[in-house]
Amino acid sequence: xxxxxxxxxxxxxxxxxxxxxxxxxxxxxxxxxxxxxxxxxxxxxxxxxxxxxxxxxxxxxxxxxxxxxxxxxxxxxxxxxxxxxxxxxxxxxxxxxxxxxxxxxxxx
Length: 108
Fold this sequence. Notes:
By secondary structure, the chain is mainly alpha-helical. It has eight helices and no strands. It starts with a helix and ends with a helix.
């Protein structure tokens, strides 16, 4: 069983996974840390890239997560919102507007 206050702050489904399969959750987090440390990209840029990937994957939950974490890390809310605008020519207007809405869920 995972006894971690950060797990308590997760949405229900990943929180359940962390509690039911703590070794999987630990390895998942270690993989994320290893990927983050594998290159020269600074923390704020990494967060914006991960937000863009979440938008491209059409993952509302991941967008919410990356926006929340970005705000906690001090990323300017306007920078987070700019990612949605940048997605217009690549992903299309409807997907960009969905992303803008998901970002707004956390920034408003």
